[in-house]
């Protein structure tokens, strides 16, 4: 191993901490040019490791200046401790002691946005996963839980607001125009949940009365000028609090709940106890500045962070390998919540599309890892779609296997056993199992969902025997090899299914050898490599509806005919599978066109396909949002995943042809749909209003493919009418992609209008980065110099650089220009913000899926990044895995 190669941490090496910290009292003297942190910890030897005798107290710490160390009131001399770049060891101390450490840090120079840093002049923190060690020396691991008292002192003018976790207990004036505040959090917590905020902020306020009658003060803090964009977040918070009481029996446990929105933030939001810190993107919304997607995202993320108060904070993770214990569970909870607040099928379809596009891709590439990883170099790289989204699917499978009541029994037992503890996914599984002894599930097999990476592939075959009226369904499963896991065992796959009869009605299900009432939909456990399910009393040959509601995160291959799929699109009682049938039909069609194009054949879209889309439009008024999703074709990136070698240009051409054919042939229907779903009157954010906007804009985007003058006029008129950002942005997106002569003028108009709103400008950068036209790479390069862009702001980077990396044709341009652009940005970002740099490096991971020309471009760029001097462990891990893969 060369000198700089970072080391991997292994789950199997976990050992409990030698020392515990029961209490910590922190004092922050916040000043430009140097912030002084005084920490007083009550430490004691961990009784669980007492047998090993006295051990040194080893504390994590990075990037700070040590001022002094004391035990009790005695200042230690330098030979009583050792400081390394990663921490501080105190050699000898009594079995219980008060340790006082003074350090100095420079938040204003912190561009990594981890630890204590400044955003728009305000002090803020981000400690998950290991940022606390950049604030003071501490055992920075989640199984060390302490009670925190925090005192903040700062200049009164520049920092009128002083916040930390828990309840504010005291405060007052100090000399030299300064002031202070003291916060106490009664609940022991790991260091990653610590937070402070100090700055010039304003707030909106509301109250929530818990079901046991306690009043909670709710505040959302934002930069002045944004007060009028907090209402939706506040509503979402109150709905979340109520929902968690109603559905999970969980009540809030402090007198106040504060949210702060900051504009420089590496991720979406953070669940610090009693003081959630958010990316402004997930708080600020007004109809004219935020799209419907933004509104729904705010509702989901506010709920997610609130739900962490129990799933993550009251019960936390023993170590970071258990990350999905809190994230998978909390994502599942926010999915359930969003389904209850909006249209459940629409919510499910959106979850699954995301899972397939992002998580399935990860699971199929060199960075594939289990829901509970067993090794990492940099934990920040493991906040992944696998840990979050696949983790949520694992939770959903518990729910599917146990039913809502059994699932709730398991949850109750989990909290009864583990409140106040730092635990593992095994502990969670044990609670689910023990609360449901009557349910027959092989929990050892179920556990494989945590340890085996890779998306299982299920092949299905069926046979109907008219004479015996039986239907035999045979399923075969294979779990693909993934890095470090060449051989897999069969998984326990819950299959929710139905059999749709020729009349379009579900046939009652009677499994041979079982004596049940014959529900029309049920769950079977598919546990063997191959298994046959035989249904009796089946009056006529059915079309099977498999994995209803996407009951397991697998890929299904079943030999449906196109007619079967069109039939399911129209008749399946499961809305998810009606959508699924349409997606399968579209995927199949586009991939066959890609193959025909490669063979030099002439391309034709069959009438039956256009008719199925016409039927969707004819039924659209029943559920406009759902219809808009049926009309959205699978993305180019998802289609690429279905090919052994991605045909970048072929997919783009074939998908565009299908869109253009539908847009041209169904022009009249699309125009009718467009008109019927225009809204008059006040803006509203109800599921129905959102659905109508989605459908209208789907129609517009199809109409624009025909490139006729009328469609262009519609888009320009919609843009110029202003109003809801959803409509303005849909029009802008269509115009940016088109050949309309007004294109540049409209883009310029948008920038002029919104230059003062950072979040709206992010949309402007993103729209241009996603345009499939060949000049995009030059345009994006030029936009790096735009006054509204900053490489230091993660939202800007995600919009422009991330948007470009998600652009299926331009990022993968055959001349390698897209790869070179991204590699330059990764190298530039790594010096400023390794977390963001590493996220931007991930799109390279799939390079082996492309043709030899593209492969060699990508490999060269990956090597260029890897050989950069002083590379962070974050980027090193992603790039080296990608090259190994
Ligand atoms: N725990 C946070 C969530 O899922 C996400 C998170 C982890 C995060 N690490 C972070 C947010 C770093 C910002 C920065 O809700
Ligand atoms: Zn989370």
The distinct bound ligands, ions and cofactors come out as:
tryptophan, zinc ion
Shape: globular
Mean pLDDT: 97
Helical percentage: 25-40%
Describe the protein's architecture and organization.
The model has no long low-confidence stretch (mean pLDDT 97). The longest helix has 34 residues, at 385-418. The chain has 26 helices and 32 strands. With 885 residues, the protein is of the alpha+beta class. The chain is globular, with a radius of gyration of 28 Å. The protein folds into five domains: 1-198, Sandwich (Immunoglobulin-like); 201-283, Zincin-like (2-Layer Sandwich), CATH 3.30.2010; 316-451, Neutral Protease, domain 2 (Orthogonal Bundle); 457-552, Sandwich (Immunoglobulin-like); 559-667, no CATH class. The strands form eight sheets. Strands 6-5-9-3-2-12-15-14 form an eight-stranded mixed β-sheet, with no helix packed on it. A five-stranded mixed β-sheet has the order 17-18-19-21-20, with helices on one face. The chain is 40% helix and 21% strand. It binds tryptophan and zinc ion (ZN). The site of tryptophan has 12 residues, from strand 20 and helix 2. Zinc ion binds at residues 304, 308, 327, 330.
Features:
885 residues, alpha+beta, Immunoglobulin-like, Zincin-like, Neutral Protease, domain 2, 5-stranded mixed sheet, 26 helices, 32 strands, 40% helix, globular, binds tryptophan, binds zinc ion
How would you summarize what this structure contains?
The chain is of the alpha+beta class and 885 residues long. It is built from 26 helices and 32 strands.
């Amino acid at each position: 191993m060369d000198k700089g190669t970072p080391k991997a941490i292994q789950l199997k090496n976990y050992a409990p901490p030698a020392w515990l910290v029961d209490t910590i009292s922190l004092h922050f003297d916040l000043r430009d040019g140097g912030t002084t942190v005084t920490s007083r910890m009550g430490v004691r030897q961990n009784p669980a490791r007492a047998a090993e005798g006295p051990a040194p107290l080893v504390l994590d710490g990075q990037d700070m200046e040590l001022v002094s160390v004391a035990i009790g009131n005695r200042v230690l001399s330098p030979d009583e401790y050792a400081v390394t770049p990663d921490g501080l060891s105190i050699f000898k101390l009594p079995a219980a002691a008060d340790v006082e450490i003074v350090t100095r840090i420079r938040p204003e120079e912190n561009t990594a946005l981890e630890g204590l840093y400044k955003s728009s002049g305000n002090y803020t923190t981000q400690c998950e996963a290991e940022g606390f060690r950049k604030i003071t020396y501490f055992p920075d691991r989640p199984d060390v839980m302490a009670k925190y008292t925090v005192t903040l002192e700062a200049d009164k003018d520049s920092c009128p607001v002083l916040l930390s976790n828990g309840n504010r207990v005291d405060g007052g004036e100090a000399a030299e125009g300064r002031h202070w505040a003291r916060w106490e959090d009664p609940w022991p917590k790991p260091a990653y949940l610590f937070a402070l905020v100090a700055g010039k902020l304003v707030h909106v306020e509301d109250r929530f009365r818990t079901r046991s009658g306690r009043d909670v003060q709710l505040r959302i803090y934002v930069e002045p000028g944004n007060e009028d964009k907090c209402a939706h977040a506040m509503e979402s918070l109150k709905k979340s609090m109520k929902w968690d009481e109603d559905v999970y029996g969980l009540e809030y446990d402090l007198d106040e709940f504060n949210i702060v929105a900051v504009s420089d933030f590496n991720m979406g939001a953070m669940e610090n106890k009693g003081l959630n810190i958010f990316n402004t993107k997930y708080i600020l919304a007004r109809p004219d500045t935020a799209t419907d997607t933004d509104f729904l995202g705010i509702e989901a993320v506010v709920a997610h962070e609130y739900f962490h108060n129990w799933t993550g904070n009251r019960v936390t993770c023993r170590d970071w390998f258990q990350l999905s214990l809190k994230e998978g569970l909390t994502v599942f909870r926010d999915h359930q919540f969003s389904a209850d607040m909006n249209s459940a099928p629409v919510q499910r379809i959106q979850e699954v599309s995301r899972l397939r596009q992002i998580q399935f891709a990860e699971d199929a590439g060199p960075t594939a890892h289990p829901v509970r990883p067993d090794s990492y170099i940099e934990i920040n790289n493991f906040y992944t779609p696998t840990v979050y989204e696949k983790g949520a699917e694992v939770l959903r499978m518990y729910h599917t296997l146990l039913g809502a009541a059994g699932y709730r029994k398991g949850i109750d037992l989990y909290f009864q056993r583990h409140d106040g503890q730092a635990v593992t996914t095994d502990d969670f599984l044990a609670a689910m199992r023990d609360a449901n002894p009557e349910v027959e599930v092989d929990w050892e097999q179920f556990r494989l969902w945590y340890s085996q990476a890779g998306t299982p592939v299920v092949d299905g075959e069926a046979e109907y025997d008219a004479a015996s009226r039986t239907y035999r369904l045979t399923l075969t499963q294979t779990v693909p090899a993934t890095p470090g896991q060449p051989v897999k065992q069969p998984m326990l796959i819950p299959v929710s299914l139905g059999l749709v009869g020729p009349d379009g009605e579900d046939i009652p299900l009677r499994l041979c050898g079982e004596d049940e009432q014959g529900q029309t939909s049920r769950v079977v456990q598919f546990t063997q490599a191959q298994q046959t399910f035989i249904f009796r009393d089946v009056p006529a040959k059915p079309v099977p509806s498999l994995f209803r509601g996407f009951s397991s995160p697998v890929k299904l291959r079943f030999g449906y005919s196109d007619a079967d799929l069109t039939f399911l699109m129209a008749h399946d009682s499961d809305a998810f599978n009606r959508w699924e049938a349409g997606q399968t039909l579209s995927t199949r069609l586009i991939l066959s066109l890609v193959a025909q194009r490669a063979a030099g054949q002439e391309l034709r879209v069959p009438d039956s396909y256009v008719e199925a889309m016409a039927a969707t439009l004819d039924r659209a008024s029943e559920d406009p949002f759902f219809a808009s999703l049926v009309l959205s074709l699978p993305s180019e990136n998802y289609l690429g995943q279905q090919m052994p070698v991605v045909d970048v240009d072929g997919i783009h051409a074939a998908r565009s042809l299908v869109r253009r054919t539908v847009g041209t042939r169904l022009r009249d229907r699309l125009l009718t749909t467009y008109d019927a779903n225009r809204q008059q009157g006040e803006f509203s954010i109800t599921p129905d209003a959102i659905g109508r906007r989605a459908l209208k804009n789907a129609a517009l985007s199809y109409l624009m493919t025909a490139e006729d003058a009328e469609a262009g006029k519609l888009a320009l008129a919609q843009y110029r009418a202003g109003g809801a950002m959803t409509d303005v942005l849909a029009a802008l997106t269509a115009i940016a992609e088109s050949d309309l002569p007004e294109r540049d003028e409209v883009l310029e108009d948008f920038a002029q209008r919104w230059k003062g709103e950072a979040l709206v400008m992010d949309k402007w950068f993103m729209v241009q980065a996603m345009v499939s036209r060949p000049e995009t790479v030059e345009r994006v390069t030029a936009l790096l110099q735009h006054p509204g862009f900053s490489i230091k702001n993660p939202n800007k980077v995600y919009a422009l650089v991330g948007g470009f990396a998600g652009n299926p044709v331009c990022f993968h341009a055959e001349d390698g220009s897209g790869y070179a652009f991204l590699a330059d940005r990764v190298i530039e970002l790594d010096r400023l913000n390794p977390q963001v740099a590493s996220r931007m490096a991930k799109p390279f991971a799939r390079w082996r899926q492309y043709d030899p020309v593209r492969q060699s471009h990508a490999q060269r760029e990956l090597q260029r990044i890897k050989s950069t001097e002083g590379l962070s462990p974050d980027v090193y891990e992603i790039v080296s895995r990608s090259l190994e893969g």
